Amino acid sequence: MKNIKKKVVASAMSFIMLFSVTSCDIFDLDVNQDPNNPTAASADLLLANAQLNGIATFAGGLNNATMGFMAINTSFDNFNMTNGSWNGTWNYLYSNPLADLEQIIVDAEEAGNNPHYLGVAQVLKAYYFSIMVDMWGRVPYFTAFKGSEGKEPGYDDDAAIYADLISLCDKALANFELTSAVTVTGDLIHNGSLPQWRRTANTLKLKLFLNLGDGGAIQALIDDADVQLIDRSSRDFQFKFGSLQNPDDRHPMYQAGYAGGEAAYSYFGHQLMVEMLENRDPRVPFYFKRQTTDVLDIADPTDKQTIPCSQRTDCSYGYLVTNPAMTNRIYEVDPGSMTAEQTEYLAGFFGRDRADPSGIPNDNPLRTIPGAYPGAGLWDDEAETGGGNKGRGDGIFPMITSWMTYFYLLEAQVSLGVNTGMSDAELLEEALSAQMAKVISVGTAADPAASDDVTTWDFPITYTDFDVFVEDIVDAYPSGGNEAQKLQYALKQAWFANFGNGFEIYNAYRRTGFPSTLQAPLQAPRGFPLRIPYAQSELNLNSSTPTVVYDVDRVFWDVD
User: How confident is the model at residue 301, as a pLDDT?
Assistant: First the structure.
């Protein structure tokens, strides 16, 4: 009996003790949180994640498509997209990098003592959403990230979003002036440098004002003595990718051209390569990597199927090495009069005419692939296949750079009457010199074989020295021409220079209609894309998604 009583008392005491613990609640399952899967992230981790994932997304498929729209490569160069084309891109942007930026902003505003992280996130948000508006038009912005207030975010007016993006830049500039006990870390772009972020915010405003055609705002911006822009390459707003293979953080152009064995990159446009060869442009061996020296035989059925544009008769460029019109432009000789070295060299420039609808043969080992700039592949010292991860891949995505700044100012001066205090020729020279220097610095860092000394190059074409090339381009600027002639010339040079950032070329073309000298698509089932279509998932799940036709309906600033 006593033993039974003792057991009852012990059980009762245990039960009492269970509910009398004051130091912790043993029923609170949060004590078992996984340290490798935190419920909240610090600002530095959120910032690094937002930069890497956001910029890798913009520098990937979207960038590739805009280069295709503008005849740089063949990605969507026939303009034929569907609502399923951008499903993953749209969903990922909102669920990952944009959500991370929003969390930084919310946390910093709630804390009230972290203005520098807040400013950086505001500038990045302005840049990211400016691309989204430029690409889609109306998007969820003011109504985004409000999950507790409703399941269907509305699509906000794109002009109102643009106005708020400019306001965001101003707020960021004000935040950078405040004192903060918190040092910005996790910044993969400017390494926490507030002067650099100030320049980025100001130059982003310049870019937005140019899209708006607001010459008065641009004039006021550059007349303000306190405003500093991105005016030299060391201050560029650019993202440098890594060289890791697992996880793969290398440049998207490198991943496509090298990391998958044989090249999986889309074809380069023949017009771009031919004109650069014809101009003896010294950027050629930095931009393009040849993979072959063999000349295909049109009499061989297999080779014939593989030859570019073999299924059509209306190509301008076709198979360059056997096309007399092209060999005369490049070498000033007919195909049969070329030396063996000239023939082998030209055979490696293997791309496509714009929107050639012929099937895709097994020609991956033949295609010209991205070179040492901007994706940090290989310099074109000799022909070899692109597979096998033979390069580094730690190239750059140039987002807003010094050469873009000078092209912005040149366009504003020519078309909007802005007085920059410099001549058109001076602005063009600054732009080209800065871009050439960046090509050299990125290319030589990527591949030890790369050299900026043109006199040492062993090619059957004598390329022009970089400095002399810039001088020749500047000297030919039509200073006495009309606005159209000046824009045509300047923006064709921007077309060459902005290789690697299709957004810049695409926007310039929609703003001005220049350059208008691009090859017409051989076959395009749709008209030129004035925007890109909304994601199918949005059409299915969000009743507020606008109904637009992407080759008919313009974004608000594209006023034709």
Answer: 87
